[in-house]
Design a protein that fits this description.
CATH class of the largest domain: Alpha Beta
CATH architecture of the largest domain: 2-Layer Sandwich
Largest sheet: 4 strands, antiparallel
Shape: elongated
Helix content: 25-40%
Distance between the termini: 95 Å
Number of helices: 14
C-alpha cells in the first residue's frame, strides 16, 4: 500500500464532498473546475499556508504535527474513524518492520465463544477473516467448518458467496460497510502483504468492490444492527457489539444478541451444520407477500374450511341455489361475527352469509 498515494486520494475525496457553503465560505472565482473545496479554501480554513497544504496533500510534508492534522481534520469535517485513518497515512513509514505475525485465538477466547450459548458469536481478525465461531453463528450465517481458511473471510463471503449474500436483507449496505472497514485496517497495516493481496483479489474480481474502494470511505464497526433473512426461520433482527481483546486489538469478538425471536432462535439452533441452503433466487417469501388461504373467514381471520364465508350479494362458489343481490340463498345462514364493514352493509339491507350443511329428509329421525 502506497501511503503517499493513499493520502493524496483521501484528502482529495474529502475536499470534493464539501461545498464552500457547507463550511461558511462565500464562493468566488466564477465557474469552479473541480467539485468541492479548492486547496486554497481548505488551507484558509485550516490556518496553514497554501504551499504547506499542497505539500501535505501530495505526501511531501515530513513530520506533520498533531496540531496541523487536527486543524485539517476539523476543516474537512472528519469523524473519529477518518481522523485515525488520516493520522495513520500521515505518519512516516518505519524503515524496518517486522512481518505481521500469524493471528491465533487463545483457548480462553475460544471457550468464551463456545459458552455464549444462545447468542451467535465469532472472532474476526485484521483481514476480516473469521478466526473462531460457535454453533449458532455457523447455523445463522454459513457453515464455516466446510470452508477453507482463505474462504473463511467476511470480505470474500460478502462478495463471492451467493448464499451469504442472500442472508443479508440489504446486501449493498453490508458490502459498503465491509469495504470501509477493510480500508480502515489497510491504513493501520500498510505493510501487510496478505491484506494487500486480499484487496487486489477483490478489486480484480468485483466491480462493486473496485468502485466503492475508490470512494476512500473508512468506518469502524463498533456496534450496530444486522437485519437478516434466514432460509429456514425467515426474518431476524440482531444487535452486535464489537469487543476488542486487550492483548490483541486487531482481534474482535462479535456477539450478536437476538431481538424478540426466541422460537426462531431455537429453530435455528436445531439446524444441523452443513444443511444445504437455498440459492439467492429461491428466498423464502416475506410475511407481507403471503396471501390469505382459501377458506379463511375475512371477518374473523380464522381458517374454517367447512364453513366458508362470503358477503351476501356475491355468489359464493359453493352456495346452493342462486341468490340475488341483498338476498340469502337457500342452504345459507347469517354469519354471527361480521366485520365493521359488513355491519354497515347489513344496516343497508344486506346480509353476511356462510354455507351451512343441508340434511336430507331421509336422514331425519
Amino acid at each position: 500500500m502506497d501511503k503517499r498515494a493513499e493520502l493524496t486520494e483521501f484528502l482529495r475525496t474529502r475536499r470534493a464532498r464539501l461545498r464552500p457553503e457547507d463550511v461558511g465560505l462565500h464562493p468566488y472565482g466564477g465557474r469552479r473546475r473541480v467539485p468541492g473545496l479548492r486547496r486554497e479554501e481548505l488551507a484558509q480554513l485550516a490556518g496553514v499556508s497554501v504551499d504547506y497544504y499542497v505539500r501535505l496533500e501530495q505526501g511531501r510534508a515530513v513530520n506533520v504535527s498533531e496540531e496541523i492534522l487536527e486543524a485539517v481534520a476539523r476543516a474537512l469535517l472528519l469523524d473519529d474513524d477518518e481522523r485515525a485513518y488520516l493520522r495513520n497515512l500521515a505518519k512516516p513509514t518505519r524503515s524496518r518492520r517486522r512481518p505481521p505475525r500469524t493471528e491465533r485465538v487463545r483457548p480462553g477466547v475460544r471457550r468464551l465463544v463456545d459458552m455464549a450459548g444462545d447468542v451467535p458469536a465469532y472472532v474476526v481478525g485484521r483481514r476480516c477473516d473469521v478466526l473462531a465461531w460457535n454453533r449458532l453463528a455457523a447455523a445463522l450465517f454459513t457453515d464455516f467448518d466446510a470452508l477453507t481458511p482463505p474462504q473463511r473471510d467476511w470480505a470474500r463471503l460478502i462478495f463471492f458467496n451467493e448464499d451469504v449474500q442472500a442472508v443479508f436483507d440489504d446486501w449493498t449496505v453490508k458490502a459498503r460497510e465491509t469495504v470501509a472497514y477493510l480500508r480502515l485496517k489497510a491504513g493501520e497495516h500498510p505493510d501487510d502483504p496478505e491484506l494487500a493481496a486480499l484487496v487486489g483479489e477483490l478489486s480484480v474480481k468485483s466491480e462493486d468492490f473496485r468502485r466503492w474502494w475508490a470512494d476512500h470511505n473508512v468506518k469502524d464497526k463498533s456496534n450496530g444492527r444486522k437485519i437478516l433473512h434466514h432460509p429456514l426461520v425467515g426474518d431476524l433482527i440482531l444487535d452486535y457489539e464489537s469487543l476488542r481483546l486487550p492483548d490483541d486489538p486487531d482481534q474482535v469478538l462479535v456477539p450478536t444478541p437476538w431481538r424478540r425471536t426466541p422460537h426462531r432462535r431455537r429453530t435455528c439452533a436445531s439446524w444441523p451444520p452443513g444443511t444445504p441452503r437455498r440459492r439467492s433466487g429461491d428466498r423464502t417469501r416475506r410475511p407481507a407477500d403471503r396471501t390469505r388461504p382459501t377458506g379463511e373467514c375475512p371477518s374473523t381471520g380464522r381458517r374454517e374450511p367447512s364453513r366458508r364465508c362470503s358477503p351476501a350479494g356475491r355468489r359464493h362458489p359453493v352456495a346452493a341455489g342462486r341468490a340475488g343481490a341483498g338476498q340469502v340463498a337457500a342452504g345459507q345462514v347469517v354469519c354471527r361475527r361480521p366485520s365493521s364493514s359488513m355491519r354497515a352493509s347489513r344496516s343497508a339491507g344486506s346480509a353476511y352469509t356462510r354455507k351451512a350443511p343441508v340434511r336430507s329428509s331421509s336422514s331425519r329421525p
